[in-house]
Amino acid sequence: MTDIKTISTEGSRGIGFFQILFVTFLVLKLAGIIHWSWWWVTAPLWIPWAIIGSLLVILAILMIAVRRAEKRLKKARRRRLTGQR
Fold first, then answer.
1. Tens digits of residue pLDDT in 41-79
2. The model's pTM
3. What is the residue extent of each domain of the chain?
4. DSSP codes, the chain
């Protein structure tokens, strides 16, 4: 005999805002109410990922720039300490 006290809903977050928006656009497109390009109909699926990807690229560029600046600063400090140019 199993004792089931609660039903776990871990990992189940349901449908999100962008998914609802996509389904709405899809229904409107298939019903002929809107005459948008399929790119715009599917935009709620890919635009959040594009934004995340863009932010990650910007973050990577900033990290590379900071590391290069740190290396130049260390090199300049060493030159100053040793009296070199």
1. 999 999 999 999 999 999 999 999 999 999 999 988 888
2. 0.65
3. 17-82
4. ---------TT-----HHHHHHHHHHHHHHTTS----HHHHSHHHHHHHHHHHHHHHHHHHHHHHHHHHHHHHHHHHHHHHHT--
